[in-house]
Amino acid sequence: LSTKVHASTGGIGSDLWRFEKGQHIGFETIGDVNKINDLFAEVLDISLAAVFQSFDAGLLGDIFVDVLDDAPKWAFHKTRLVSSISAHFDYKIERRPG
């Protein structure tokens, strides 16, 4: 994101190239917004994983099984790092199929 906030010769050149192609600043495409959203989701995934690594394993397992499993729409169930951490608790009885 710093390349978007702080002007540089590369950034200005890219902006001019896009302007010449009819892509004006402030009128980003859906693809541009989706790329930024994907990058932001990855940053949040890394941040959550770092925070979760600071928790006691027993407490973290309880949080995943007793709290987060009851929130199926929580977006981070599908992210690379958080879902990997969550998978470490699949051994728990509460997660075993009936």
Secondary-structure element series: HHHHH
Mass-distribution shape: elongated
Sheet-strand content, in percent, reads under 5%
Number of contiguous helices: 5
Helix content: 55-70%
The count of strands amounts to 0
Low-confidence stretches: none
The radius of gyration computed from the alpha-carbon positions, rounded to a whole number of angstroms, is 20 Å
Secondary structure category: mainly alpha
Amino-to-carboxy terminus distance: 46 Å
Largest sheet: none
The whole-number mean of residue pLDDT values reads 88
Explain how this protein is built.
The chain is an all-alpha fold and about 100 residues long. The protein is built from 5 helices and no strands. It is elongated and about 60 Å long. The protein starts with a helix and ends in an 11-residue tail after the last helix.
What labels would you give this structure?
98 residues, mainly alpha, 60% helix, elongated
